[in-house]
Amino acid sequence: MGRHFTVLNVASVFVTLSPLFTSCIGNYPTFLPLSYRIGKPEYFGPPTTDQATLEHETTHHHSHQDGHCPPKFDRVGSDCFYFAEEKRNWWNSMLACWEDDARLATFDDPHSFNEYVLQTHGEDQLFWVGGKREYNGTAFEFPVGQEVPLDFPWSHGYPDSIGHCLAIGYQGGFVNDVCDQHWRYICHTPLLEGPPPHCQFPFIWRGGWYTEACATTGDVDGIPWCSTKTDEQHHHIPGNWKHCQNEPWVGHGIVYPQNED
After folding, report:
1. Which long-range contacts (CB under 8 A, 24 or more apart) does 62-65 make?
2. Same domain, residue pair 90 and 218
3. Which end of the chain has fewer surrounding CB within 10 Å, N or C?
4. How far apart are CA 55 and CA 160, in angstroms?
């Protein structure tokens, strides 16, 4: 259900968004904040991950009165993160997050976030996050204009002079790697207001009439999902859905063929 696409020419994508990108493709601290401002002002600014509440809470396991995470995102403290399974280069990872109304992960407390990633995913794989440096520069910055602090939890031997994009997960710390390398990535978005939406049954999707079961196809992670908003004829409205592992209808329920009459 996640929206994924492959960018063959990253420069052309940014050029179509704004003429300003024609002169600053590759000048990350300049153009990326602009791109995040286009139609997405709520995602531009410091994240709010609080060390005291940095714990793994998922929206499909808990009902939060103070907010909830969008589909496929897990709640971590007071923010929502998605650990993608597919591998992309840094640029396409950024765009994949953007397509989900999110951004590559940034955080107030890199030490706590590093510990969380280490506990949940180990230290034998890499995830792209939102930090980068200019190709002729030495300082790493996040999209919100924050410089990497002096006590940043780098992995042993890093940063080096080779890579310009920031990743996490190798030997229990952060590394800088070549931006064209393909790694998994972490998307980040603020909490949505209010409690999570409920499944709307029945709903129609791709010719199936779902009355007693969530859909088990169409999700990139293979997790059952349901529609949270339908039209008057019960057709699923794209973009309005959620995972539903713990809903009572999940399982091998009946999916009736749609009656075209």
Report:
1. 63/195, 63/196, 64/191, 64/195, 64/196, 65/195
2. no
3. C
4. 31
Both 123 and 209 in one domain: the answer is no
The CATH number assigned to the domain holding 241 equals 2.10.10.10
d(C-alpha 147, C-alpha 161), whole Å:
17
Q: Do 147 and 202 sit in the same domain of this protein?
A: no
Contact 116, 123 (CB under 8 A): no
What is the tally of structural domains in the chain? 2
One domain for residues 107 and 140: yes
Q: What is the pTM of this model?
A: 0.58
| Pairwise CA distance, residues 176 & 139, whole Å | 11
138-158, pLDDT tens digit by residue? 677 776 556 777 788 999 989
Closest CA to 75 of 84, 88, 89, 64: 64
- How does pLDDT run across 190-216, given as a tens digit for each residue? 988 877 777 888 888 888 888 767 777
The residue range of the domain holding 255 is 197-261
Q: What is the CATH number of the domain that holds 156?
A: 3.10.100.10
User: What digits encode the pLDDT tens for the residues 153-189?
Assistant: 999 989 888 899 999 988 889 999 999 999 999 999 9
What's the rounded Cα separation, in Å, for the pair 64 and 78? 11
Examine the pLDDT at 32 and tell me if it is beyond 70.
no
Give me the helices (H) in 158-207, please. none
Give which of 175, 151, 148, 152 is closest to 164, Cα–Cα: 175
Tokens found for residue 58 = 């998922």
Verify that 143 and 16 share a domain, yes or no: yes
